[in-house]
Each structure stands twice: as C-alpha cells, then as structure tokens.
Amino acid sequence: MAKTVPMIITNQNILVWDIENEEFKPFNMPALSTVPNIPFYHQFAEKIAEGQYYFKEFMKGIYGKKLSKYIFAIIVPDDTSKLESIFINEFFVNSGACKAVAQMPMALALSKNDDNYISVSKSSRNVILEYIRNHEIVVSKMYDATVCDAKKVAGDAKVLHIDMEYRNIPVYVNNFNMNMDEFFEMGTVITPKEFMEKIAVIDVEKL
Description:
Elements: E1 3-9, E2 14-18, E3 23-27, H1 48-63, E4 70-76, H2 82-93, E5 100-105, E6 116-122, E7 126-133, E8 136-144, H3 150-158, E9 171-174, E10 188-190, H4 192-200
Parallel strand pairs: 1-4, 4-5, 6-9, 9-10
Antiparallel strand pairs: 1-2, 2-3, 6-7, 7-8
C-alpha cells in the first residue's frame, strides 16, 4: 500500500515531512531569486529538469531510492490557481520522486473539528478570506496583499455568506508564514507549530 508523505508549499520553499525523524525538512531550489508577488516555484518552469533532479536527490536523502511507493499529500497556498495546481502536480509526478500526488489548500487543513469555519491567510501576493463548510470551500475572496486593509477583511468576514446571519461561525487566522499580525483580532490564531502538527499526520485518504 502506498505511503503518504505530507508536504507544504510555503511562501519561500517546500517543506517535506521526514517520518523517521518526525520533522519537516526544507527543500530550497538552488539559485532562485525573489520576485515580488510571484510564487517562487514559478521559476521551476525555467529549469524543470534541473529542479526535478535536485528534488529527487533531496527525497532520496530522506526516504532512500524506493520512491515509487510514496504519494505526496501537498498542502498549497490558498490562492493557488488551477493552472498553478496543474504545474505543481506535473512537476512532482514527473520528477520520479513519487507514485502520485494529491493537493489540498491550507484553509481546509486548519480545523478537523468544525463543520463550518472561516479561514484568513496571506500568501506572497494575496490575503485570502474563505468560508469552509463540510470540508469544502464555499466562498473565496482575495485582496492584494500590498494594499489590503485588515478592517475591511474583518468586516467582509461577517457577511461573507448567508450562514453568518444564522450561526456563530469560528474564524481561524492562519499565521503559518508569520505574516498575519494585523489580523490576530479576527479569531483564533493558528501558529506555524500548530499548523505543521496538523499536516504531519495527514493522509491521502483524508484529502
């Protein structure tokens, strides 16, 4: 049976769960530059073969040479587009470092106990406000991270969906990238440690 390897695409790198040592290890593609408002992995497209080689070697260092038995459970930023999602899948599948991949946006990983909740997060380019119901994103609203007003986001959260009029719905502030200080008053803050603890036990069957 295929084994799951949890992974997180952050704003700067890729974190891979090392099951044996029970810790996330960062993969950093060599010679990448920082481009404002552009996810770092876009640069992988310029050197796909090279990037896939480095990543496969990185995985061999953690899991050995028999990589085809693993499925990557990849947690992606909440503003990942459909085209970006396809690229991410193709990059990892064609790297030869896994059997298959499954993706899930960060917002869906914030709570296992709530059927309904609101997620607020920030990527390298957007602030993302989402309403989650029964493990599905019902409403998603994005704001330019460079000019976003936290008060407006908080106000929008109260009227994001008609459900807000009839239920007391919890708000989770995803501070995984440690960039959400101005949003702390909106709800329960999920720290990087708490987020990684949730992801470390994720299984493909749960995606």
